[in-house]
Write a structure and sequence with these properties.
Oligomer: single chain
CATH architecture of the largest domain: Up-down Bundle
Number of domains: 2
Helix content: 55-70%
Strand order of the largest sheet: 6-7-8-3-9-10
Strand content: 5-15%
Number of helices: 23
Distance between the termini: 73 Å
Shape: elongated
Radius of gyration: 35 Å
Low-confidence stretches: 1-19, 615-623
CATH topology of the largest domain: ABC transporter transmembrane region fold
CATH class of the largest domain: Mainly Alpha
Largest sheet: 6 strands, mixed
Structural class: alpha/beta
């Protein structure tokens, strides 16, 4: 199996293998340092196991000699007992080595996964909008496991194989250097083709990985509720099935090729080992008949030969194994080297409790370039987008006093949602400042910002968990009484009470077991539980029908009561009662005032209002407030 491990790692090696580098090795050693004691014991036991593997052939040969020489029965039994003891010791050590290997490997996987997961959580929203989820998940699965092999397989394999090879070679040379050298002459016949075969397997495996990834992407997209709905609406199940069958068929063909290449490898290994063994027994038999060698020695050398070929083959591919592991580490460090653009400053202070104002002071902002927030390999493109998308916000300034409501209106793409993303620090302003309670948000702790500020987004996203888990996302300590109170205020308590599982009802992927209005009211109930001083509503009713919107409007009125509010409105009828309405166009505030004042100006707001409420247009629902 050691020989097959060589081929296995070769299969997973990357074409763009990177050379050893001291910085990379230092970073790897930093991950291994907490496991150094277990690693030392692991290597020591691997070496002892390798030494025992050489002892068994020698004892077997000694028994053969004892039988031929007619030695005492006690000696034969003693030697047999030693062989049994060695076998028991090997079995015990094998279990210990496997246990330590599992502990070491799984511990390293845990460290790597949690490190990458925690780092990814600190990345800006732009990172997630550009990255393919499947590619990112692959780093947490395939690459982490590949890196783990550097410790659980490669390191111990190299150490154990070196010890086994050295001891077996020394013993064989001591028994008969002529037979040893002659048996080694067949090694290149196998090792050189095996290395070529490893490269071929690597190419096949990469091709299979691409098709598997394509199948996985298709399944992920088509098996989601929106994806399945889209396929059904456009009546393409046959085309989708044919495309999936084509990809699956390609994976099948590659699987057959891989199986045959592997079988050729095994057959070649078996054949060369058998030829070498025949050579040892044939030549050794001649020497034994001439009295130049003991019969037991011939038997011992035959058994030692099996301890020689497998380590030699594995070590021949050691570079491929090590480079494969290093490539996995490099791909992991690629993600870890992406610096989060939004960080909590050292010594950040806590926002004082109580009524809180919200202020934008000459804020200018441009979305970060792709090279700052993404990787080409995570986007699965040849090169990152280098286009300059320009400044989105230009000197935006406004002030919301505690308890006031300010509304943002304007054309799509004007910058309204960007403004909403700067307050909770999903991004940071390039120039100017955003202040909560008079404090620049960059000087505040993340925890205090999250506690003081609540956001209701347009899509009303929910996790595939229970209603309780979704509601307590920001308030894990909330009691059932508080949960039901929040649901009542969000006009959703009767619906939840009617469900068989109540609060423990699973909402489904993205909450698709509920209507759009029900999902929005759940997110509003979640916000009410956190009881923030500042609320941001990002077009929370734009995608709802009139009936759902009316129910959500009632819940929103409850959520906004007495709070500092920034409301982004698609439907202008919902924000007539705002203290101030800001009209945003091309990243600038072009008008500001109350509903009545802006209509009298006959400017952009009046134009937007007339466009929505022409004769026969939509009726105005109740406004927020």
């Amino acid at each position: 199996m050691a020989a097959w491990n060589s081929m296995y790692h070769a299969m997973h090696a990357q074409e763009d293998q990177r050379p050893f580098s001291l910085p990379l090795l230092r970073r790897i050693s930093a991950f291994a340092r907490p496991h150094s004691r277990r690693l030392a014991w692991y290597l020591a036991l691997s070496v002892v196991t390798a030494a025992l593997a050489v002892a068994s052939p020698l004892l077997a040969g000694r028994i053969v000699d004892a039988v031929i020489e007619g030695s005492a029965l006690g000696l034969v039994l003693a030697l047999a007992g030693l062989i049994a003891a060695v076998a028991v010791a090997e079995a015990a050590l094998a279990l210990a080595v496997r246990w330590m290997s599992a502990r070491l490997g799984e511990g390293l996987i845990l460290d790597l996964r949690t490190t990458v997961y925690d780092h990814v959580q600190r990345m800006p929203v732009a990172f997630f909008t550009r990255t393919r989820t499947g590619a990112l998940v692959s780093r947490l699965n395939n690459d982490v496991i590949g890196a783990q092999r550097a410790f659980s397989d490669v390191l111990s394999g190299v150490a154990g194989n070196l010890v086994t090879l050295a001891l077996a070679l020394v013993v064989m040379l001591g028994l008969s250097w002529q037979i040893t050298l002659l048996s080694l002459a067949l090694l290149p016949v196998f090792v050189l083709p095996a290395r070529r075969m490893g490269a071929r397997l690597a190419r096949i495996e990469r091709e299979r990985a691409l098709h598997n990834a394509a199948m996985g992407t298709q399944m992920t997209e088509r098996f989601s509720a929106p994806g399945a709905t889209l396929v059904k609406l456009f009546g393409r199940p046959r085309e989708e099935s044919a495309e999936f069958a084509r990809r699956a068929g390609r994976v099948r063909d590659i699987g057959v090729r891989t199986a045959m290449v592997q079988e050729v490898f095994f057959v070649a290994l078996t054949l060369v080992s058998a030829l070498a063994l025949a050579l040892v027994y044939g030549l050794g038999g001649i020497y034994a008949l001439r009295g130049q060698l003991e019969a037991g020695t011939v038997v011992a050398m035959g058994m030692l030969l099996t301890r020689l070929y497998a380590p030699l083959t594995a070590l021949a591919g050691a570079r491929v194994e090590v480079m494969s592991a290093l490539v996995s580490f490099s791909r992991i460090f690629e993600v870890l080297d992406l610096e989060p653009l939004v960080r909590e400053r050292p010594g950040a202070r806590t926002l004082p409790e109580g009524p809180t104002s919200l202020e934008f002071d000459e804020v200018t902002f441009a979305y970060p370039s792709a090279e700052k927030v993404s990787l080409a390999s995570l986007e699965e493109v040849a090169a990152l987008d280098t286009a300059d998308h320009g400044t989105v916000l230009h000197g935006v300034s406004f002030h919301i006093e505690p308890g006031q409501m300010v509304a943002l209106v304007g054309s799509s793409g004007a910058g309204k949602s960007t403004i909403a993303q700067l307050a909770p620090r999903l991004y940071d302003a390039d120039t100017g400042s955003v202040r909560l309670g008079g404090h620049d948000v960059r000087d505040l702790t993340f925890a205090s910002i999250r506690q003081a500020l609540g956001v209701v987004t347009q899509d009303g996203h929910l996790f595939h968990e229970s209603i309780r888990a979704n509601l307590t996302l920001g308030s894990p300590e909330a009691t059932d009484d508080r949960l039901w109170d929040a649901l009542r205020r969000a006009r959703l308590d009767r619906l939840v009470a009617s469900l068989p599982e109540g609060l423990d009802t699973v909402v489904g992927e993205r909450g698709y077991r509920f209507s759009g209005g029900e999902r929005q009211r759940l997110t509003i109930a979640r916000l009410l539980l956190t009881d923030p001083e500042v609320v941001i509503l990002d077009e929370a009713t734009s995608a709802l029908d009139s009936t759902s919107e009316a129910a959500v409007q009632e819940a929103l009125a409850e959520a906004l009561r007495g709070r500092t509010s920034l409301v982004i409105a698609h439907r202008l009828s919902t924000i007539r009662a705002a203290d101030t309405i800001l009209v945003v166009e091309a990243g600038r505030i072009v008008e500001r005032g109350t509903h009545t004042e802006l209509l009298s100006l006959e400017g952009r707001y009046a134009e937007l209002y007339r466009t929505q409420f022409t004769e026969g247009g939509p009726q105005e629902p109740a406004a927020l407030g």
